[in-house]
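To the team - magnesium ion complex, inputs and output below.
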Amino acid sequence: MLPAYIPNNAAVLAGGGAPIDGGRTVGGSRLLGDGKTWRGTAVGTAAGVALAVGLNRLAPVVAAATGVSPPTFPLPAAVGLAFGAMLGDVTASFVKRRTGRERGAAFPVVDQLDFVAGALACAALIDFGWFAATFTPPVLGVVIVLTPALHVATNGAAYLLGLKEEPY
Ligand code: CTP
Ligand code: MG
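Output:
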């Protein structure tokens, strides 16, 4: 899941510049808001794909050292996970704006799982064979249980470090 986890964090570091929605509003609320930028989305996606490429190179080393083969990421799957994570986050912002939540407002559960849902859905659409072989039911269960905990921890840390304006 690392190629799906890193994009949001990279976007926080790289974010800024022109918002994707160009300032457009729908029914008085922003389409997405200033928190979803072209640069954050592009850098986030690139960071996830780059990490996947790095993990692919590391996989034989890990397998030799531990006897356990970690998953590898064909390029389409890597793009699906990384871009899907960003798309899930953007989709959640769209829903937040439509439900009266301002930029930065908390949306419990959605904030913690939007990028997972986007990443898994995109990876499955792009490379279903790889997805089904990699995300077996027990793996999916672990991902869905552990991700919210990891998300709360990393965002809390980013908040304490002054990188993020809210701890979620
Ligand atoms: N960010 C970005 N582009 C993205 C996602 C995030 O530039 N596609 C950057 C923005 O600077 C954003 C920060 O990362 O403010 C934190 O992301 P997030 O918490 O997802 O955005 P919010 O500002 O909280 O906005 P929203 O309420 O729409 O989630
Ligand atoms: Mg936020």
